[in-house]
Amino acid sequence: MPIERIRSFIAEDMSAVDAVIRQKLHSQVALINQVSEYIIHNGGKRLRPALVILSAGLFGYSGQHHHQLAAVVEFIHTATLLHDDVVDESKLRRNKATANALFGNAASVLVGDFLYSRAFQMMVEVDSMRVMQVLADATNIIAEGEVLQLLNCRDPNVEEENYLRVIRFKTAKLFEAAARLGAILGNATPEEEDALAIYGMHLGTAFQLIDDLLDYSGDYQDTGKNLGDDLAEGKPTLPLIYAMRAGTDKQASVIRSAIETGGESGFQSVLQIIQDTGALAYAKQRAQKEADIASKAIAKLTDSNHKECLLELTRFAVTRNH
């Protein structure tokens, strides 16, 4: 089931999610409306909300709380983007100016806080302590991941395991929470709930690995950001970590220097080393391994269109170009 068919399959549910988002975005403060509308409606794959919808459907859920929680997940994700772009001093996301570039850092941070707090208001409305526990734990771990990534910046000594830990905290944790929430709503067994959580964690990891790979191989029109943005920020991602490990001492020295200075001047040299050492192929292989673990986690669940959609997402995560 290609990604277009997944979008078609859940289109009605995602339309309901969008309606919740529009309703809950409203504030009496005009600037909050302006910034949050800009970032929410400025594209994005909406994969995390889709995971809530698909996992709930997998267990036959027929209520309305999945729309509310899908919107909550999107709000939390959007809040992290607003804060991320300020921390990274990013100017471009999805081919458009970032909110901080348009409205300033202060507005972006504060509207991010608004989205976080609105998300918690919404999850309380679901009236489930289990749901609140999952989302509270997830947001706390995501924040830890943000700080870990900050500590890793401009540090060429970051090992692959430390890099993966940041991904699992910062990115994959919300994928895990989204998949788990749908299972909770659908009254899945503890074993089934854990299977969805494992699926989400490894799907999210594969997704971020490909994101980091695309920073050295993607096309601006597809990815919406410039090649080398991660290097310019001094982020030691997997292509760099592997290239330093597999390359010569001289090649490793070039990459170490580029990470430490966080500059763009040596990007072409670094890109050549990445290509020469097979770092992109290694990162792709590592992402495929994560996707395979995700698929295996739900393999024994009852076959359905919802399950096929979830399996297709593992394929999309690795083969996508944006």
From TrEMBL:
UniProt keyword Transferase, yes or no: yes
The protein's required cofactors: Mg(2+)
Gene Ontology molecular function, alphabetical: all-trans-octaprenyl-diphosphate synthase activity; metal ion binding
UniProt keyword annotations, A-Z: Magnesium, Metal-binding, Transferase
EC code(s) of this entry: 2.5.1.90
CDD domains: Trans_IPPS_HT
InterPro entries in the record: Isoprenoid_synthase_dom_sf (IPR008949), Polyprenyl_synt (IPR000092), Polyprenyl_synt_CS (IPR033749)
Pfam families: polyprenyl_synt
GO biological process, one term: isoprenoid biosynthetic process
Catalytic reaction(s) noted: 5 isopentenyl diphosphate + (2E,6E)-farnesyl diphosphate = all-trans-octaprenyl diphosphate + 5 diphosphate
Function: Supplies octaprenyl diphosphate, the precursor for the side chain of the isoprenoid quinones ubiquinone and menaquinone.
Protein family membership: Belongs to the FPP/GGPP synthase family.
UniProt cross-references to NCBIfam families, sorted A to Z: PRK10888.1
Protein's UniProt name: Octaprenyl diphosphate synthase
Origin species: Nitrosomonas nitrosa
Gene name as annotated: ispB
